[in-house]
Amino acid sequence: MLDQYGDHVLTCKKHTGAIAGHDHVMNVSAQLARNSGLRVRINCKVATTAADSNKQGDVQAIEIGIPGCDDLVWDVSLICDRISSRMQHGLNCKLQLGDYLNARACIKINRYRRDYAAKNIAFAPALIDVALITS
Questions:
Q1: Which of 3, 82, 116, 132 has its CA 20 to 30 A from that of 11?
Q2: Domain boundaries defined on the chain
Q3: Is 68 left (phi over 0), alpha (psi -120 to 50) or beta?
């Protein structure tokens, strides 16, 4: 059965389902920040010192009050921690061992945090695992 758990349809960026899911999570997290009294911007480009300047985080909380930082940017990702058959034969749809979410968070942090910090902006990944755990 193709994608029996629905993981692919939720995370594949080749169709609008994943984009709509991402945008929904982004909008909900922005609204939660607003409900907490924060001013937020969505999909706002932030000029950084990196060669690929104008990175675009999903949500930017303005004047967040973190010492040394003016704002906080978070980037939403919907991921699936199941191993696909393309990665390892015979393990299709088996949950991966280890801390996959932590590894993905570290990748985002290493890619973006330093560039945002140069502009006194804190960066945090917001990862959501869509894999279903079934017995």
A1: 116
A2: 7-129
A3: left
